[in-house]
């Protein structure tokens, strides 16, 4: 059998080597994310189908969930050792911890002089996630369902037809953890945290009527319907359980 010239072998192997290198690069890009202006831990977790608590744990983020533009976050536990975050978050968290300790010290009457308390309290373990079994879900808007959960290429919620400008209401009480248009494919988006398990999301708003940090009640007006896919007026509505999209019709009355 005649031997192949070296340059022929190289010509055959080069595309395979390049393909492997490219695929490796793509895999790595999917394992990390650089925080942008306007991002929150909740919006990043939502956009990557992750549980925000796990995302915080992988990146040593405290319970205040504080992140800063420029921070590089690992998007999996496996990637965590290979991703180095900026020191801004750690510095601020440490500063807050120090100031909090000083405030507690002054409150307890030692004048903030660093004196040791007579009976130090052991650190308590973090509590397990709390789930509210009494969540009363309500439809965020009235209208015909254009697309149901699981229909189409990647429909992770319900697309509900409604006249542009129609009021969008909170499907349950909770706290607004994200407002903005930084997530591709959702337009102006609102995310509400209901407990340690459930989030709900409202996309394609023409107008957002709440701000991050607002406490909202079930049925409270939070936005107005805008234009979605195909320039059609609609609301995109999702419910996430531990970061995973679930069928809203299994929860709504």
UniProtKB/TrEMBL annotation:
<feature type="compositionally biased region" description="Low complexity">
    <location>
        <begin position="83"/>
        <end position="101"/>
    </location>
</feature>
<protein>
    <submittedName>
        <fullName>Lipoprotein NlpD</fullName>
    </submittedName>
</protein>
<keyword id="KW-0732">Signal</keyword>
<dbReference type="Pfam" id="PF01476">
    <property type="entry name" value="LysM"/>
</dbReference>
<feature type="compositionally biased region" description="Pro residues">
    <location>
        <begin position="119"/>
        <end position="128"/>
    </location>
</feature>
<dbReference type="InterPro" id="IPR050570">
    <property type="entry name" value="Cell_wall_metabolism_enzyme"/>
</dbReference>
<dbReference type="InterPro" id="IPR016047">
    <property type="entry name" value="M23ase_b-sheet_dom"/>
</dbReference>
<comment type="similarity">
    <text>Belongs to the E.coli NlpD/Haemophilus LppB family.</text>
</comment>
<feature type="domain" description="LysM">
    <location>
        <begin position="31"/>
        <end position="75"/>
    </location>
</feature>
<dbReference type="Pfam" id="PF01551">
    <property type="entry name" value="Peptidase_M23"/>
</dbReference>
<dbReference type="InterPro" id="IPR036779">
    <property type="entry name" value="LysM_dom_sf"/>
</dbReference>
<dbReference type="InterPro" id="IPR018392">
    <property type="entry name" value="LysM"/>
</dbReference>
<feature type="region of interest" description="Disordered">
    <location>
        <begin position="79"/>
        <end position="134"/>
    </location>
</feature>
<feature type="signal peptide">
    <location>
        <begin position="1"/>
        <end position="20"/>
    </location>
</feature>
<dbReference type="InterPro" id="IPR011055">
    <property type="entry name" value="Dup_hybrid_motif"/>
</dbReference>
<keyword id="KW-0449">Lipoprotein</keyword>
């Amino acid at each position: 059998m005649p031997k192949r010239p070296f340059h022929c072998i190289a010509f055959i192997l080069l595309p395979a080597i390049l393909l492997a290198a490219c695929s490796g690069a793509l895999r790595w890009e999917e394992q990390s994310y650089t925080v942008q202006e306007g991002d929150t831990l909740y919006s990043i977790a939502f956009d990557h189908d992750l549980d925000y608590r796990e995302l915080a744990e992988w990146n040593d983020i405290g319970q205040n969930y504080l992140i800063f533009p420029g921070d590089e976050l690992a998007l999996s536990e496996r990637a965590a050792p290979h991703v180095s975050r900026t020191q801004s978050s750690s510095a601020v968290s440490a500063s807050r911890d120090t100031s909090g300790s000083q405030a507690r010290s002054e409150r307890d009457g030692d004048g903030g002089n660093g004196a040791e308390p007579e009976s130090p309290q052991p650190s308590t373990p973090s509590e397990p996630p709390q789930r509210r079994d009494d969540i009363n879900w309500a439809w965020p808007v009235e209208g015909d369902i254009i697309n149901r959960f699981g229909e189409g290429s990647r429909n992770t919620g319900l697309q509900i037809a409604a006249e542009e400008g129609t009021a969008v209401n909170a499907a349950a009480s909770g706290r607004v953890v994200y407002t903005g248009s930084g997530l591709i494919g959702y337009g102006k988006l609102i995310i509400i945290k209901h407990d340690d398990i459930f989030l709900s999301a409202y996309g394609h708003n023409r107008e957002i009527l709440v701000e991050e940090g607002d406490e909202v009640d079930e049925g409270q007006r939070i936005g107005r319907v805008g234009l979605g896919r195909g320039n059609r007026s609609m609301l995109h509505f999702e419910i996430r359980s531990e970061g995973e999209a679930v069928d809203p019709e299994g929860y709504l009355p």
